[in-house]
Amino acid sequence: MDNRKTASKAMRKAAGMAALAAAMALSACGSNGGNEGGSANGAAPSPSGSATAAPEASAPPAELAKVTQVTNWFAQPEHGGQYAALAKDFYKEAGLDMTIQSGGPGISSTQIVASGKAEFGMGQADEILLARQNGIPLVAIAATFQKNPQGIMYHKGKYKDVSELNGHKVYVGSGVAFWEYLKRAYKLDGVEEMKYTGSLANFVDDPDSATQMYVTSEPYTMEQQGVAVDSFLNYDLGYKQYGNVLYTTEDYLKKHPDRVKAYVEASVKGWNYYRDNAEEINLVMQKSNPDLKLEAMAFGTKALEPLVYGGDAETNGVGYMSKDIWEGLQRQLVEIGLLTEAEPIDGVFTNEFLPSP
C-alpha cells in the first residue's frame, strides 16, 4: 500500500571486540531488505564468547489507512458482505482501518462521499448516473447485487400484470427513477399515486393497493402480520439496474488506486464469506441495528442469495458489472428525461479492481 511505512532496523551493539561489533552492525543493516513485519537474526557473542542467535528489534506494525464507507440504510442483510469483511478483519488484512457508517432517513451517501467525509459509499446504479449529471463525479467499483431488490408489492393474487395497477393506489416515493420508467413503459397514467412514508398500514387496509418495497424485507413484515403478498421485481419489469453499488470519487480512485483495490477485494471476500456464514454475521449486524430481529435477517439472507450470487456473478464473481446493463439503464434515464445526455459509460464504472473469479 502507498501509505505503509518501511520499517528501519536498529543496529544492535555488542560488548566486546570492536571488530565484532562493526561486523554485527553491517549484518543488521543488510539483513532485512524492506520486508514489512519481518525480522532478521544476526550472530552476537555471548558473555562467554560463543556465538548465539540474537534477533533484531521487531519492526513496528504497518500503518493502516483510515477509511470510511457509508451504507444506504441501517445494518441489515443487504450489507452482509461489508460487515463480514469488517468482522473477519478482511479490511484490516488488506491494510485498511475501516469504519462502516450506517445510512438512514435524510442521509445522502453521495453527498458524504463527495464532501470527502467518507471514501466509499453504497447506493443504486441510477443514483451514480444522476449524481454525475449533477456534478458529483462518482465511479462504481463493484455491484454487490446483480439484480436490484426493489420492486412493487401487492396483495396475493390481485394482479398478473403491472399494467393492471391503473385505477388503484400505489404508494411510491415522489420522482423515484424506477417508477418514472414503469409509468412510461407500462402506460400507468391511471394510477393514483400516494406518498410512500415507510408505513405499510394503508397498504394493508386496502387490498387493491400496491406499494414500493424491497423483496428482502417488506414481504417478511407482511408475513408476520398474516398478510399474503406477491410482488413484481423492477429488474424483471425491464428496469435493469444494479443494487447496493459500491463507489468512490474519480479523484480518490486516481490518487489511491491501491486502497480502492484493497477495499473492493476485501468487500468481495466478505460477501463470499457471508454466503456460508450468514447467521454469524447477522449477529454482528444486530449489534449495530438491535431493532432488526434475527428472524427477519434470516428471511432477507435467503431472499438476497439469487440476487447477489446469481446472474453474471455465477461466472464472473460477486461485484461484476456489465457494460450492457449500465448503457441500458443510462438510455432509459435519458428517455424518461431524468438524464439530459448519455456520457461515455466507461467513465461511470470499472471492473478493474475486482478479484479474479
UniProtKB/TrEMBL annotation:
Protein name, as recorded: Hydroxymethylpyrimidine ABC transporter, substrate-binding component
Q: Where is this region: Disordered?
A: 34-62
Q: According to the lineage, what is the superkingdom?
A: Bacteria
SUPFAM superfamilies to which the protein is assigned, alphabetical: Periplasmic binding protein-like II (SSF53850)
InterPro entries membership: NMT1/THI5, SsuA/THI5
Which of UniProt's keywords are assigned here? Answer: Signal
Q: Where is the signal peptide?
A: 1-30
Q: Name one GO biological process term.
A: thiamine biosynthetic process
Positions of the SsuA/THI5-like domain: 76-280
- Renumbered to this chain, the Low complexity biased-composition regions fall at 41-62
Entry's Pfam families?
A: NMT1
